[in-house]
Each structure stands twice: as C-alpha cells, then as structure tokens.
Amino acid sequence: MAKREGSFTFTFSKRNNDVxxxxxxxxxxxxxxxxxxxxxxxVRFYEKYGKNSTELRxxxxxxxxxxxxxxxxxxVEEVTTTSSxxxxxxxxxxxxxxxxxDLDED
Length: 106
What we know:
- The protein has helices at residues 17-29, 35-49, 54-67, 76-81, 86-91.
- With 106 residues, it is mostly helical.
- The model has no long low-confidence stretch (mean pLDDT 77).
C-alpha cells in the first residue's frame, strides 16, 4: 500500500504496549475516535507542558480547586518547596478519627 506524502507509520515496542492497547480500546469503544487526532493532541500537550512543568502543576492545582472546593489543596509552591507529603498536610494535625487498628503494622 502506498504511503501518503507526509504520513508516518507507528509501531509500538513491548514497553509501549499499554499505549497501543489504550488506543485500540478507545477506537473500539468510540466509532468517532480518530487515532491521528488523539496522538497529535498528546504530542501538543507534551510539548506545551513537558515533564515537571510549573505550568502543568498550576493547571492540576486549578482543576483540584474546581473539583474539590472544600478540600485542603496545597499550592504549587508548597508542593515544590516542602519535603512533607501531601497526605500529612491534609490531616492538619487531627488524628482523633483514626482507629488504633488502622495504625497496626501490616
């Protein structure tokens, strides 16, 4: 089969088989799903936010505030500059509701 000008053929290595399966599942479940559009959007997202992007962290915090308006959500600066875990911060020192049996070692 002749390849169209400007087109690419993607193959997936074993370590990326999860991505291949994810795309195949989406295609099977949605007749309007366009693989090339999905992959292009993924590349655009990665190029915009990359790894360890402050802009991405800000986006995640903004979404968390929208979805969980009454929850304690640390700021990007708190997450970036503190060594404590988010779960520790969310307790705010209140351990009264934790059962002793939950504290037993596994």
